Amino acid sequence: MTEESFVSALDFNPYLPVDWLIALVAICALITLFSLWRRGRGTLLRGALMALLILMLANPVLLTEKRKFLDDIALIVLDETNSQKIGQRGETALAAFEELKTKLEAIENLKVETMTVRNKTTSLIGEEDGTHAFANRGEALRNISPGRVAATIFITDGQIHDVPDGAEIHENEGPLHFLLTGDPNEKDRVLRVVKAPAFGIVDQPLQLVVSVEDFGLEEPVEMAAVSVNLDGEPIAAGLARVGDELTLELTLTHGGANFVEIKVDPLDGELTEKNNSAYITINGIRDRLQVLLVSGEPHMGERGWRNILKSDPSVDLVHFTILRPPEKQDGTPITELSLIPFPIRDLFEKKLNDFDLIIFDRYRRRGVLPSSYLHNIANYVKNGGALLEAAGPAFATPLSLYQTPLSEVLPARPTGYVFTEGYIPTVSAIGKRHPVTGLLKAKADADKDWGRWFRMIESEALGGETLMTGPSQQPLLILERSGDGRVAQLLSDHAWLWGRGFEGGGPQSELLRRISHWLMKEPELEEEQLKGTIAGNLLKITRRSLDTAPATVTVTDPDGNTTQLVLSEGEDGAQSGSVPIQTSGLHSLDDGIRKSLIAVGALNPKELHEIRATTEKIAAAAKKTDGGIRWIKTEGIPDFRRTRPDNRQSADYWFGLRANENYEITGYNRQAMLPPLLALFLALSFLCIGWWREGR
Questions:
Q1: 188-285 is a CATH 2.60.40.10 domain
Q2: In terms of C-beta distances under 8 Å and separation of at least 24 residues, what long-range contacts does 237-245 make, across chains too?
Q3: For the chain, N or C: smaller number of CB within 10 Å?
Q4: What is the β-pairing status of strands 223-230 and 256-264?
C-alpha cells in the first residue's frame, strides 16, 4: 500500500451568511457600474478593493485529501475434486499452483488469495452436485469489494458444475482466467445409470436401465461387455450397444440394503476406469410376510401372540386354534357345530412353502396333524423355512412334538419334568451378545428386575444358542439354524404375564417380535453382523458376534487403499471402531469371516460422469469477462500484465490483472487560499494607491 496527498476540491467558508454576501456583491457591483458610467477617477482601484474585501469575507479554502491506495486482489482457485485425482492432473495442478503463486506475489500492489475446492464425502442422500468452484469463489469474495479484484484464476480440468449463466456473471469482479490440467485429446468410456429403483420386493424381479458411452475415439466401438454383481457376487453378464440404453433384470435375495455393482469392460488407453462402474443401493423389502399360527388349545397367552403378529402391518396372519380334537365325541350333531374344519391338507401340503414362519403354540399330538405333515414341516425348515415352538406342559409328556418327525429340527429334548415355581427369566452370557435378547429392557429403568414366570419345561439343549435361562440355569429360549432354515424354542407358556404387567411385567412384545423377525431373517437381528455407519467425517464400524475374541477389520476404499482397524469391545457386546473418510464411494469391510459394503457419499457422483478435461463448460464465462484459457501441459503458465479496467484483459500469451487503483481516504487538510495577513497587505496597498491617485 502507498499513501499520497491529492487536491480534491475548492470550497468556501464565508464569514457572513451567503444571502448577505450575495447582497454585498450586488451593492458593490452597482457602485462600480455607476462610477464607470460617471467616468469617475479611480473606479477600477475602488472596484478591485471591494472585490478583495468580498473575497476575504467569502474565505476560499483548498481541500487536500490523504489517500491510501489499496492492493488489488488476485484469487487463485485450486480444484482438488475427484476428477483432478485422475492420472497426473493432481501433480500438474499443484506445480502450476506454486509457480502461479510465486509469479503473482512478485507483482507490486497485488495481494494473492488462495482457496481449494474439494468434494464433500459425507453426503448420504442423493447425488453429489460435482465441483462448486464458483460457489466457493463467491464465499471467498463475500467480504471483498468487487472493485478490488484484479482477476480470478482457476486451476482445474474444466469440469465445473456451477458455472453461472452469462447474465449472472459480473464483469466488475475482474476477468476469469482458466489454467487447464489434463489433455484436450483424452478418450474415456462412461457407464451411466439411466433408471434404478430405490427399493425392490425380495424374490421378485426388478429392472435397471444403464447406458455405455465412449468419448474421444477416432474409430467408434459398437459393443461392450457388461457384468452385474449383487452384494459382491456375480449374477449376470451381457453385451451392450455403445450409445444405447440397456435394460438389466435382477432379483433381490434379502431385505435391507442390497448393493448392485454394474461394470463395463474398459477401453484400451482410456483416461480412467473409475467411471466404468456404477453402484446402486436398493432397499429390499418383503411383500407381506405370511405367518401360520397353530394354537393347540385356548390359553391366556394365545391372544398375546395374535396381538403381536396382527400389530405388524407387514404380516399376514393365518391363525387356527384346535378347539375340538378328534377324540372329543359328545354326540353333538355336525350340523349344529359352528366350527369350520381344519384345512390341514391345504396348509401343510399344498401351501406350506408359502409361509415365512410357522408357530406352534402349546401344541400337542392329538391326531389332528398326521406324521407325514409334520415330516413336511421338518423338510420345510431344512430348506429355508422358519419354525417357532412356544411349549406348554404337554411338551414334557408323550404327546410332545419332540415325539414326532419334528425332533429332527428341534434343538431341545424334554426331560419330562415341569418347573412350577416362580422364577425371573435371565438373559444368558451369550444372550447378552445376541441382538434378539442383548438390548432387552423391562422399562426405562433397566436396573429393575422383570416380573416372574411360574412354569418352564425342563429340557436338554442339544444344539443352538441358549439366550435365556430359568431355574437352575436351565434353557428357556433356544435359537438354532437347521439346514437353511431357523428354529426357536420358548420352553414356557407364561410370557403373557409380562404383557399383563405382573410384578412390573417385562418386554413381552419386544421379545416375541424379535424372535419372530430373527426367524424370518431380519438383517438387523443377525447375530453375526459387520456394518458401517457415517458419523461426521468418520466411518464408524460395528461388529456384532457371539465370539468374544477381538477382531481386526480391513477397510478398503474405492481407490483401493486399505486400512487395518482393531475393534474395541463395547458395553452391549458389540465391537466398534472408526477410521477417517478419505473419499466417497463404496467401501468394503472384511473381518476375515464376513464381508460388508457401505456407501459413503454419492455412489455415482456427477464428478465422475464426465471426467475428460474440457473447455466447453467454462468458455462462455471466460469470454464474457475477457478472460483467458490455457492448457498447462502444452502451453505452460502465461505471463501476467497489469491492465486498466477498460482495456483488453487477455491474449494468447498473457493474462491480465486489472489495476483498479482503489484507495481509502485516511485524512484531509483545509488550507485558506487568502491568508489574513496577505489580504490585509493587499487591502492597504489598494488604499494607498487610491489615495496617491486621488492626491494628484
A1: yes
A2: 240/210, 240/211, 240/212, 240/264, 241/212, 242/212, 242/213, 242/214, 243/211, 243/212, 243/213, 243/214, 244/211, 245/194, 245/209, 245/210, 245/211
A3: C
A4: antiparallel
CATH class of 72-184+615-661: alpha beta
Count other C-beta atoms under 10 Å from residue 637's C-beta. Answer: 17
- Alpha carbon distance 262, 628 (integer Å): 40
Quote the CA–CA distance of 251 and 301 in Å, as a whole number.
Answer: 39
Give the whole-angstrom CA distance, residue 511 versus residue 509: 6
Residues linked to residue 281 through DSSP beta bridges, in sequence order: 259
Q: Where are the extended beta strands (E) located within 196-287?
A: 199-201, 205-215, 223-230, 233-241, 245-251, 256-264, 277-285
Q: State how far Cα 328 lies from the chain centre.
A: 65
Show me where the domains of the chain are located: 2-68+666-694, 72-184+615-661, 188-285, 289-519, 529-600
pLDDT at residue 443, as a whole number: 43
Distance CA 362, CA 455 (A): 13
* Beta bridge pairs of residue 65: 6, 668
- The answer to whether the 72-184+615-661 and 289-519 domains have the same CATH topology is yes
Three-state SS for 387?
strand
Q: What is the pLDDT of residue 694?
A: 60
What is the rounded distance in angstroms from the CA atom of residue 630 to the CA atom of residue 646?
A: 23
pLDDT for the residue numbered 124: 42
* 60-95 tens-digit pLDDT: 777 777 777 788 889 999 998 878 888 888 899 999
pLDDT tens, residue by residue, 98-121: 999 999 999 888 889 899 988 765
Rg (CA), the chain: 45
In whole angstroms, what is the distance from residue 579 CA to residue 85 CA?
21
Strand partners, 249: 207
Nearest to 362 by CA among 212, 516, 261, 493: 493
What's at 486, amino acid-wise?
Answer: R
CA 366 and chain centroid, separation: 59
Contact in structure between 180 and 631 (CB atoms under 8 Å): yes
Q: Write the single-letter amino acid at 646.
A: D
Residue length of the chain: 696
457 CB contacts (<8 Å, ≥6 apart)?
391, 392, 393, 395, 396, 414, 417, 418, 419, 491, 492
- 526: Cβ contacts below 8 Å, ≥ 6 apart: 435, 518, 544
Give the alpha-carbon dihedral of 500, 506, 508, 512, to 10 degrees. Answer: -170
pLDDT tens per residue, range 500-541: 888 888 888 889 889 988 998 888 888 888 888 887 778 888
* C-beta neighbour count of 9 within 10 angstroms: 10
Cα–Cα dist 19/2, whole Å? 43
Rounded to two decimals, the pTM is 0.65
pLDDT, tens digit (0-9, with 9 covering 90-100), for 228-266: 888 878 888 888 888 888 888 888 887 777 888 889 998
Cell numbers at residue 226, please?
A: 457388461
The CATH number assigned to the domain with range 289-519 reads 3.40.50.880
CB neighbourhood size of 696 (10 A): 5
User: Which of helix, strand or coil describes residue 112?
Assistant: strand
Q: Which amino acid does the sequence have at 279?
A: Y
Collapsed DSSP state (helix, strand, coil) of residue 635:
helix
Query: Is CATH 2.60.40.10 the right assignment for the domain spanning 529-600?
Result: yes
Give the CA angle between residues 473, 477, 481 to the nearest 5°: 125
**Look-up of cell digits 420358548:** 490
Q: Count other Cβ atoms within 10 Å, centred on residue 65.
A: 16
Residue 412: exposure state from Cβ atoms within 10 A (0-12, 13-18, ≥19): buried
User: Where does residue 597 rank: exposed (0-12), middle (13-18), buried (19+ CB within 10 A)?
Assistant: buried
Q: What angle do CA 409, 414, 420 make, to 5 degrees?
A: 135
